[in-house]
Amino acid sequence: MRLNLCLLAFATSLMTGCSEDDSDSGFIGAGPIGQSRDQQSGNIPGQIGRPVSSHGGGDLTVLGGNANANQAAFRQRFGLSDPNQDQMAGWQQYDARFTEYSDKDPDWPHPTTASANWQGSAWSNGDPLALEGTTVAVDFNRIPRGSLIYIPSLNMYAEANDTGATRLWSEQDYNQSDYGPNGAGRIDIYDSSGDRSAIQTERDFNNWIGGNDYGSIYVVYRGSGWKQGGH
Amino acid sequence: MKTLLHAFLLALIAAGTLFGQNPPLTGDPYASRGNPRSPDGKYVWLIKNSPSIAYVLEQNSSSKVLAEVPAYYPQPDPDNLKYAKACGVFWNRTGTIVALDELNRRRSGQLYFFQIQDGQTRQIKIDALIPVPSTAAETRLVVDPGWQSETRIRLRQSVKQKDGTFADNFYLVDFSIPTRPKVEKTK
């Protein structure tokens, strides 16, 4: 009975909890090419110009039922739109490897050193929740915590507010482009599994990116300062 | 009804086994585990925050630094410090072997072993003794649940397979001869 109550309490704790803490993480280290955290690599995208084409037409459904809605709300809140070539030319482009993690991960219930997400929603212990369609986990040694990134192949803006097995990633991807001189490391895209199994979720992701797990990303803003412009 | 109750209890026990982790999934995941002080009180693990976050083993009486290892996220900021403080320190009964286990979430963190003898320390590396399955995309070693005897500690290898599934493998590491630890698979 005690175990039953514990499981019930834990499940309840996962569904509750809210934090408005949107404070900066205070990152002071260097990124892939030695920029400081406050160095914005370009302008926040505006509303003009010809949009860049992407695989899948920007449909993020495979990341979870609310992925498209979250991406739309994210763009609306921060005034983000499909970037044109001129805007992208002003951002820093990096090599990256795309992987996925999901809420079917046994380690999932407790993020690591994540920063507050753009919605400010959090676990009961204050850790920020991941949001399908906008959250990616990155190697904070490569991309500062809270940065705004753009993934052209998915036409997806994302917040780099979570992190994962970064030392392992750098070891396993040694000599790969994502950990090369222009590498941003792995971009571990959050996936809300819903009623899918872990294996199905992984399979869906791999089919979606079609074997193009090595690609490029743009860092639109380094660090979490861009969120101050939200409303 | 009785059969149903038994089935339910068995399911709960199975769930407890399946999700049994160190640290536990319930409660504060950032609570430290174990005890930073050695059983005889002679040594203590501290966390320093400058110029980078690191774990430091000190001799209590003299504050002499006996060992130091960097935290998994070494940049000194509050989130990384919170993560570093969530480590587990597991001493054997005689205080001659200690395991320093960083928070084991999302396969982040490291597991270190040290032998302490007459105020001298020596790191014992065991990773190479525990095989990484060829099907693994990521693995992580953690103490789970702790020392089983004066010389034997039980570890869990958390594995994310290349197909996206997960598995746990358990090992007993025997430090009877600290320079030559022995590893055997267990349940």
Radius of gyration of chain B: 18 Å
Largest sheet of chain B: 5 strands, mixed
What's the total helix number of chain B?
A: 2
User: What composes the largest sheet of chain A?
Assistant: 6 strands, mixed, barrel
| SSE order of chain A, one letter for each helix or strand | HHHEEEEHEHE
| Low confidence ranges of chain B | 8-20
Distance between the termini of chain B: 32 Å
Largest interface in this structure: A-B, 39 and 36 residues
- Summarize the helix and strand pattern of chain B as letters: HEEEEHEEEEEEEE
- What's the number of structural domains of chain B? 1
Class derived from helix and strand content of chain B: mainly beta
Q: For the largest beta sheet of chain B, what order do the strands appear in spatially? A: 1-5-6-7-8
| Rg of chain A, Å, rounded | 17 Å
Distance between the termini of chain A: 46 Å
- In percent, how helical is the residue content of chain B? 10-25%
Give the overall silhouette of chain B. globular
Coarse morphology of chain A = globular
Number of strands of chain B: 12
